[in-house]
Design a protein that fits this description.
homodimer; 43% helix; alpha/beta
């Protein structure tokens, strides 16, 4: 893939406008930011017809190109989805503003007052796929955290994204904030993503959101810092000391409540005790009732004898992200074996244990290396809203800068602030 | 530069040992870590002769290769420097252990207990130049924060580094911790650095320490995350409302107390008021007494008439990191002009204002984008020890993950910890 000089110059010009906007955004007050978020929400509702008209054109073009199913569903907007988008902006307006907050204030022995002040990162580039609501969500989180957003959505949603970005831009201008604060990259070819990812002098952070293919493309081509949101291969380990009813409810919920998302369970790790106790059979039957197909190792398969939803697992089922009503099942003889399985096949996303044994729970919490470790609850709680961050920009599975859901605070940095009365170093 | 298959395989094997060590390090207790730090300190002192002998060989070889001056001084060890190295290890042992600490504990409306737990990053690679003490300092900070250290020091210090690393490794083994926790890369050619920087599956973070050339080499070639420590072009702005005596003491200290380091002042920004008040002339004379040569813009040069240490600045003097008794001087008519100068020529390192005007101080703290912003104190305070972090791994001038001095906490990440009683999502 080639970035022509013309494309590079055009993308640079657009991202420079975003960089320029950061100067004004850095000193925007909370009141200003909330006012513009409210104005944006009102404008999205008032001009919903424009958005829906553009969206019909996107959907029609996608259908003509043969697109069907879930992809088309993610692309499609309707009046209630536009209202939800506006509601999302109002939710962000209500979140506390992290910018300017002083943390870890202390006075040094020489009298220097030292603190750390939350500041914006600068220019945050979002590279995403079909869902047009990301345009509004990402813009709102960036704006509230004082960052300029550079947005590069999917080609198939370009008309919808332009309509949304244009409405948000008008709202910025109306309150006297620079339009560059929300910059939708004009070019729709993939080379434009490359051009953004190479602007090390202008872009502070790139966040890819979408399928694994897009994320790998961004990670492999970026020269700017990237926070990765790779796949979620989440496990639930049902320990020998698990409460059976609790384990059943958690495992069914983690798998079936919304199987297509990254914090759904993909593999049940079950202590052998539950194969003989009858618990696993009960689970397998309940799973069948929810339409879940099981890919079992030999001991588990034996315990499912006669059940039509169980079949033998192949090696590739472990570590797979099904995003569907399919579940791998692994039998273990001890906690250590469960921990080893998670190290080998987990994706550092969300790992849960069900147990009444406090020592086992403690080991799980301390030893499992994942963005969210859970005791006696569903994996589905690894979500910015559920964990109390208010809203999220995605879930980071790398440890640098952010690990887990990224809320407003994860879109900031901290600088040291030093106040003296003439102190010098000797 | 080419990484041969043989080199790649050898470096991978060494870094895999470090990765393997992280499993044990993750659960090492504070007591274990402190005990090994104390044992390391004692071993460095007891076996100082081995280190000094190796160091003599390094210094002799460097001299034979024509090396002189500051470079040779940084390379050279003596008994007191070895004692200082041991003392540094004991200092790290006394620092609070961030690992396992629970932060932001909260209970969600559904009863879930949520917190964030400090965890190690994993494998931290240090790429550094001549000073052999970095080997012990970096190993100690990594160990205390539960990380495995992969160390690649300068070729000229390889004998000293091997002696130090071997002593530290023996101490690890003596307490039952894996030797891989401190892994000194054997190969001394620069291609070995490249090989380390490409191990995205094994290395969590690379930190370059040294001259700008080394840092650029690492940043441009790394596929693993890098925290950059670029140059320090630090300004002191003497505002119209500065206390004259305080301003004089701070400016002289920032320039002359240790001119060769990154938090020394490189450019004095002076309000025009002080050219006519006589303050600047007084400063120029004091600077002359300390051997400082001034590179002045026309108004400042005029105010120095007759002083032998003042000459006209060339455009390249602004933004230059002299690391020497040389100072650029820029005259401004207002705070805004000073802020603009810092935006244009600063390096996001340390920026100080001297003023009695609270509004000017407040604007400086909020608007200047630097890892450390200072009011009425010397720039020399941007240092982990001085700011209360205890010790530092260098000073980050990028905002991702860490901005400013990196202490133990900056070598950690935080995972979400969720404790439930059977909660599921509806």
């Amino acid at each position: 893939m080639d970035v022509t000089e013309e494309l590079e110059a055009s993308v640079r010009r657009q991202v420079e406008a975003a960089r320029q906007a950061t100067v004004r955004l850095r000193t925007a007050t909370t009141e200003e930011k909330n006012a513009v978020l409210e104005a944006m929400a009102a404008a999205l509702e008032a001009r919903a017809a424009e958005i829906l008209e553009a969206n019909v054109a996107d959907v029609t073009a996608a259908e003509a190109a043969g697109t069907r199913g879930a992809f088309l569903d993610r692309l499609r907007l309707d009046p209630s989805r536009v209202r939800a988008m506006a509601g999302g902006l109002r939710d962000v307006a209500r979140l506390p503003d992290p910018i300017g907050r002083l943390e870890e204030e202390r006075t040094r022995p020489n009298g220097l007052k030292v603190a750390r002040m939350r500041i914006p990162l600068g220019v945050v580039a979002l590279i995403y796929e079909s869902r047009p609501n990301v345009t509004a969500d990402a813009a709102a989180l960036c704006l509230k955290s004082g960052n300029a957003a550079v947005l590069r959505g999917g080609t198939e949603a370009v008309r919808s994204n332009r309509a949304i970005a244009s409405i948000l831009g008008d709202a910025l201008e109306a309150v006297g904030l620079p339009r560059g604060a929300i910059t939708l990259i004009e070019e729709t070819d993939r080379a434009a993503i490359l051009a953004v990812l190479r602007l090390t002098d202008l872009v502070d952070l790139a966040i890819p959101r979408g399928g694994e293919g897009l994320i790998r493309f961004v990670v492999e081509n970026a020269r700017v810092p990237v926070i990765q949101h790779f796949k979620g291969v989440c496990h639930v380990y049902v320990d020998a000391a698990a409460d059976p009813d609790e384990a059943l409810a958690i495992a069914i919920n983690a798998k079936t409540q919304r199987p297509g998302v990254c914090n759904a369970m993909e593999c049940l790790v079950v202590h052998r005790h539950h194969l003989t106790s009858g618990w696993f059979r009960r689970f397998a039957e309940a799973a069948a009732g929810k339409g879940v197909r099981l890919r079992c190792d030999p001991p588990a398969l034996e315990a499912c004898a006669g059940l039509e939803n169980a079949e033998a697992a192949s090696p590739s089922d472990y570590g797979a992200e099904f995003l569907d009503l399919v579940l791998a099942v692994k039998t273990v003889d001890a906690l250590d074996e469960a921990l080893d399985h998670v190290v080998r096949y987990g994706s550092h996303h969300t790992e849960a244990i069900v147990t009444e044994d406090a020592a086992a729970a403690d080991r799980w919490l301390k030893e499992v290396d994942a963005s969210c470790v859970v005791v006696n609850a569903s994996t589905r709680f690894n979500d910015g809203g559920e964990l109390g961050l208010g809203a999220e920009m995605g879930i980071s599975t790398t440890k640098m800068h952010a690990y887990g859901p990224m809320g407003l605070e994860e879109l900031t940095a901290r600088k040291f602030v030093v106040m003296g009365e003439g102190q010098i170093r000797s």
